[in-house]
Amino acid sequence: MNPYVEGRRNDAFLISVVRCALRLEVVMSKVSLIVTEPQDLIAELKPAHHPRLYGSAGCETWSVRFSPDGSYFAWSMGHGIVRLLSWPLTSKDSAEAGCSKEKTLNCKQMVWALAFGPCLSTRVHALHQNGRDHELLLAAGLNNGVIQVWVVSTGNLRFTLSGHQAPVRDLLFTPNGSLTLVSASRDKTLRIWDLAKKGASPHVLRGPDYWKVYLWSLRSYTFMRHLTYDHERTMASCDFSQDGALLAIASYHSTTGWWLDLDCEVCAYRSDNLLTSLSFSPVGLLLAFKDYRALRIWDVERDKLVTDTDYNRASGVCCAFHPHGGVIATGCRDGHVKFWRVPRLVPSLKHLCRTALRFSISTYQVEALPLPKKILDYLTYRNIPKQKIVYCKEHRR
Fold it and tell me: Start-end of the WD repeats (predicted)?
């Protein structure tokens, strides 16, 4: 088969899929896309030891995570303790009867980051995964630069990974279903660990002496590009959208305040409040961002806030969506965890088509397709406004 002819056939197929989705979108335009539900507090977890003084160090919930299948919830409850709870939360009676999967992990150091793995993936064939690879693990990044990897089913410590010279601030298992763990530290390095190979040295990716967003290739472990800004900023948090084609970044500059950027300079959020965490929903194009005052969830596709809540005395520092949507967990500086109901949105057919394409096709490949500019802008997320200012309830005009 001629490669040129084969490439043209693939282009024609992709174009037909896009056009079909656009036609269906017109047909479905009269269907309600938002299922109205009350946006209220579902549940709250309180730490066993309350802080002696508000703002005292050691009691913060720096990380909350749901397992890939949604059956477990991990809570960094301060003082070096991580709690593993079954989800949905079991009642007190069932817990006393021994029906709860609750476990307590004593990490003996402040826990900054948590990550469940391996992630669920439909791309990895079952024959290439043995039973041990399917065992659910929980990685914990500690204040002393060590990473502990625990077996969720037993609560036993499996690995202790050393090498970072500063607190491990973030952890992530790669989304391809493998036991590859990526760690980010305040020592300005990324380390890629292959947990399937016991004792294997990690790949170390070293950044610059100042804070900036750098993109690396996990295939070749080489630098790809860095994202530039008008002013030098300190980065606080980042996350990729479900299809991996959109990157959201929360950053700080002393004279301009806190910003939230989508895909470098596609969209910006500015506020006097301090952004501490952001997270894309695994269902639809919802972006949650937590600051010291409130939790806000932005529907990026429809350009509107769908949740603006959690105004209280205890400032929040982290947030995480449930993998099936509908719930988001937030962690606070006083050690509390709160679970909030998220409005259920039905993704548009156009967005579902875009997500399916962008899972496996890069921006450069999409731009090479002979499609109208409006469709190309949509597929590459360039239809999002270049600048977006979101006001809180107190400052909304």
Answer: 161-195, 320-342
